[in-house]
Inverse folding.
């Protein structure tokens, strides 16, 4: 059981569930109690589909992970590729089925996201930059899914944009980090195609865009001062990621923590 939990990457699942819950709270025009059922189911669906996406990604990346991350469940031999794929497909089916009990929009988004995750892992991940943008969309769409659950899709468009920009930047940095394994596997990522220096510049542009647009929710009166104060700490992490961009593992560390702090900023705002 533990090896399957590791395959699902529970930290990522929890973050997705939190983002959906925040999107739901931002999108609702009534009280949390009035929408608690929809928000709860949507968060659970997000966790399940994210777990399925992580599992199917590891299924298709087994050869690369044997070089870059040999300790993961599939390359280490703790889970067979067949069982990993069955685990992933089961999670997608459960997530989509549960979304039926929210509303048709959420059912559509859950189905679409599941298909995109499979297509990304099988094909799109190996398309230069498009794979990075796809993951950025999927991460940002957690806010949209939460908003859709309570009929407030438009209210979550700005958090969607910020999450997407930050994620695309981090995905490029991760590609820089994985260049050795990707070269041996013959995978053409952005850093391999155009070089590490140019890729670092593009990643920095996405991260800088996140910093510049981070005050937008407060400017548009979507969120207030508590959000603005906390997101400033996230911006410091993002700046550190740009400064250390030539050392991808360190830059990725700052980006991950910056995204966590940004999520905390949304949590604090909706909780007050």
């Amino acid at each position: 059981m533990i090896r399957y939990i590791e395959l699902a990457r529970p930290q990522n699942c929890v973050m997705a569930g939190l983002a959906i819950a925040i999107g739901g709270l931002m999108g609702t025009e009534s009280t949390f109690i009035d929408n608690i059922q929809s928000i709860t189911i949507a968060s659970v669906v997000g966790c399940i589909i994210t777990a399925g996406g992580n599992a199917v990604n590891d299924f298709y990346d087994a050869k690369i992970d044997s070089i870059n991350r040999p300790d993961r469940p599939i390359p280490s031999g703790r889970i067979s590729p067949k069982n990993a794929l069955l685990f992933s497909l089961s999670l997608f089916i459960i997530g989509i089925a549960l979304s039926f009990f929210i509303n048709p929009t959420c059912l559509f988004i859950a189905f679409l996201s599941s298909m995109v995750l499979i297509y990304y892992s099988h094909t799109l991940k190996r398309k230069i930059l498009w794979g990075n943008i796809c993951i950025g969309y999927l991460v940002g769409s957690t806010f949209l899914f939460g908003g859709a659950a309570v009929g407030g899709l438009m209210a979550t468009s700005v958090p969607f944009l910020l999450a997407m920009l930050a994620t695309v930047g981090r995905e490029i940095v991760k590609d820089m980090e994985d260049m050795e394994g990707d070269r041996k596997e013959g995978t053409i990522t952005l850093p391999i195609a155009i070089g590490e220096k140019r890729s670092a510049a593009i990643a920095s542009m996405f991260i800088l865009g996140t910093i510049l647009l981070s005050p937008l929710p407060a400017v548009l009166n979507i969120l207030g001062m508590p959000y603005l104060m906390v997101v400033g700490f996230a911006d410091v992490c993002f700046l550190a990621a740009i400064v250390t961009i030539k050392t991808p593992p360190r830059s990725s560390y700052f980006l991950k923590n910056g995204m966590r702090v940004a999520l905390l900023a949304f949590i604090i705002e909706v909780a007050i």
Q: What stands out?
A: The mean pLDDT is 89. The chain has one domain: 2-271. The longest helix spans residues 32-60.
